Amino acid sequence: MAVFMSFCLLLLFLNQSLALDNGLGLTPQMGWNSWNHFHCNVSQDLIKATAKAMIDKGLDKHGYQYVNIDNCWAASSRASDGSIRSDPVTFPDMKGLIDYVHSLGLKFGLYSDAGTKTCADHQPGSLGHETQDANTYAQWGVDYLKYDNCNSGGSKPEVRYPVMRDALNKTGRPIFFSMCEWGVDNPATWASRVGNSWRTTGDIKDNWKSMISRADQNAGLWSYAGPGGWNDPDMLK
C-alpha cells in the first residue's frame, strides 16, 4: 500500500503557532492515497476493497485513518447547474461509497484542483466553483480535500488557496485541507494561515535519492510546522 504518513513524523517539531483553525491536523495526517499505485485506474469497488483491507490488516489501529481518492474520480463535465459530479461509470454512488468508508470507522478524502481543470487535464477543477464544490463535498461527507495546482492561469497560490479555505469553513463541516502546490512561493512561510498541510517539494519518486532529497529540502522548515498545520514532503510509496 502507498501509505502517505508524510515525513512530517520524522522531520518536524512542534512550534507555538497554530494553522487553519478547524480543529484538524493536530498530528500529521496518516492514511492511504490512490495515486502512486493506481493513478487514474480507480473505481468505487477498488476503494471499497482498499478500505476493508486497511481494517483487515489493522492499519487503523496504528493511526491510519484516511482513505483518499486522488485524481480521476470526477465526470469530465459538470452538471447543468454547475455542480461537480462523480464519474457515472467508475463511481456511480459517491455518497454511498463515503458512507461505507465511514461505517468502517475510517475517514474519506477526495481530490480537486485550484485551477480550471485537474492535473489529468480532462476533469473540472474548482477554480471559480469553490463554494459550490465545498458544499457538495460537505453534503457527501468528505473529511479531507487534497487541492492540486494545475491549470491556474498564472494566478498565485496565495490568491487561489484561501478561497477554498473560506468555502470549506463556511460549510460547517471540518475538512482537512491538504494544499498540493508543490512548494511554489515558499508555502511554509504563509500556508499555516490557509491549510492543514502544504506540499513543500515537487513529486517524490520511489527511490532513496528522491526520499533523502525531500528530507534535505525540509530540514530548515521545521519551525513553520506544528499542531494544525504541517510541512508535506509528499507521500511514501
Largest sheet: 7 strands, parallel
Q: Helical amount among residues, as a percent range? A: 25-40%
Adjacency order of strands in the biggest sheet? 1-2-3-4-5-6-7
Task: State the shape.
Answer: globular
| Mean pLDDT figure | 91
Order of helices and strands: HEHHEHEHEHEEHE
Which runs of at least 5 residues are low in confidence (pLDDT < 50)?
A: 5-19
Quaternary structure? single chain
Radius of gyration: 17 Å
Individual helix count: 7
Going by helix content, strand content and strand pairing, the class is: alpha/beta
Count the E strands. Answer: 7
The share of residues in extended strands comes to 5-15%
How far from one another are the termini? Answer: 8 Å
EC number: 3.2.1.-
Keywords: Disulfide bond, Glycosidase, Hydrolase, Signal
Pfam family, one: Melibiase_2
Protein name: Alpha-galactosidase
Question: How would you describe this structure in keywords?
Answer:
7 strands; 237 residues; glycosidase; 7-stranded parallel β-sheet; single chain; alpha/beta; Aldolase_TIM; globular
